[in-house]
Amino acid sequence: MVEIKSDAALDAMREAGRVVAHALAAVRDAAAVGTSLRELDEAARTVLAEAGARSPFLGYQPSFAPTPFPAVICTSVNDAVVHGVPTDYRLRDGDLVSVDCGAELDGWTGDSAISFTVGTPRPADVELIDATRRALEAGIAAAVPGNRTGDIGHAIGAVARSARCGMPADFGGHGIGRRMHEDPHLPNRGRPGRGFPLRHGLVLAIEPMLISGGRDDYRTGPDGWTLHTADGSRAAHIEHTVAITKDGPRVLTLP
Ligand code: MG
Ligand code: MG
User: Ligand 1 center to residue 206 CA distance, Å?
Assistant: First the structure.
């Protein structure tokens, strides 16, 4: 069931989104060569705790997962696309890191992800992150009343294709509100004019995941959580929670 949010609910979701943005900024600040993924999780936990927010990630166990998720962020490094579990792994020079974070505040949820490099970046990683950012921006631009979810997916898919990147077919964005994952599902590929109709008060997490090797295949790691590219190439993942409004897309997960 799709829930259309009131304007007051959108304002409340904006506050949850702000907490997510601050947590991601703290993670970004903490990330350097030698920082462990667990330390990044600690940085995000501190921000959530200080804001009085709950983590929708911690303890989350969807049907595919063998264990409850043990952290408040996902940390996906290099060939990991999404759902990476923070471990004692210490970041190395040139690593490409995607961090996904959620927060629940006063009953409303925000969900956002960033990708960045640590130390001296590889030029190909800079290009991959840029393409993923452009895919998200194209998706957000299509998130307007009168369009459908297929228009968002089409916009994201066009950028991925022009960058010669793959995307894992089974994963995409989603409705979001009181819970992190609500209807409708938002595929990262779509046909214009198809899918769920967008209207004022619908909130979507838009989250392109680009695979630099150009193929869509992935494999699940031994932890049962981490999605890796099948070809070992690098991946990036950037996400915002976006409200469709009559005044245009409203990004709820900005600082
Ligand atoms: Mg997310
Ligand atoms: Mg999401």
Answer: 9
